[in-house]
Amino acid sequence: MMKRSLFPVLFPACIALLAACSPTPSDRIAKNMPVYQQLPKEQQVKVARGELEKGMSPEAVLLAWGEPEQKMAGWSNGKNTERWIYTRSGTGWSLGRGGGGFRGRDSGVGTGVGVTMPLGGRPPISYNVLFENGKVVSWEAVKGF
Fold it and tell me: What is the pTM of this model?
């Protein structure tokens, strides 16, 4: 009996599925064109490239970077503040091949593709966007824990 590998079929399917799970700025713009068209031209260019600039509205940041993992409201120097936290885990790909059997019978060989979380290799990166009175005043990238 000839065994066939499903790898040539499953690998492209996994790539397509993962790509579909991470929308790009152009995907978000296409779904929210009226919001995008209301932005100043300079901000439209930045948003389309996935970039931020001071003075952007929360709507512009949503188009550029998507929905944050956390939103935290606050108050500083008499101004309403809000901090949006985006976490990028530094995921990677792994390919594997394995084999085994039960007491020497029914052995098999398999292959697999997976998405891995780094363990000590690449630390997660968190991006914080700070708004004051509804406008971006700063953002930062924080590596590791």
Answer: 0.63
